[in-house]
Design goal:
alpha/beta; three-stranded parallel β-sheet; 2 helices; flat
């Protein structure tokens, strides 16, 4: 099964950590969205807009 149609949203304010997670998941061909977010209310808007199947919040 290809993971290309599974949207993953990574919510992380540390760029290095977000990049590590992105690199790991991109090997498995997930459709990735990364948001560097410092306020929780912004993440809810991005979640609503992207409709991810998997949400990784750190």
């Amino acid at each position: 099964m290809s993971n290309g149609n599974i949207k993953v949203l990574i919510v992380e304010d540390e760029n290095d950590i977000a990049n590590i997670i992105r690199d790991y998941l991109s090997v498995n061909q997930f459709d990735l969205h990364i948001a560097a977010i410092f306020g929780g209310w912004i993440s809810t808007k991005i979640i609503a807009k992207t409709s991810p199947r998997i949400l990784i919040v750190e």
